[in-house]
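Our working data are protein records whose layout never changes between entries. Getting from the letters to the tokens is the skill we practise here. To make this concrete, we reproduce a full record directly below:
***
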Amino acid sequence: MGIKVGDDAKTALKAYSTKYKRVISRHTNEELEGWFHVGDEAIIIFDFDKSDNTVVNSTVTPDSDVEEIILAYWKHFN
């Protein structure tokens, strides 16, 4: 969809939230910021802070930069 590392959160989240459903955490029942179901149990994760060594985004502002994009399967996350 044209989103790449270095793009801001506002651009990435707007592009994906209009087309894909957000992922809901199995643990907290809350939306995982920057995580989207893209089909057949596949998910895409926009990581806005690689330095925290986790793909769960805690604080995302509109100008946060996409630092990593991960394509994975939901079944691989517990």
Remarks:
- The radius of gyration is 12 Å.
- The chain has one domain: 9-76.
- Residues 26 and 44 are 16 Å apart (CA to CA).
- The mean pLDDT is 94.
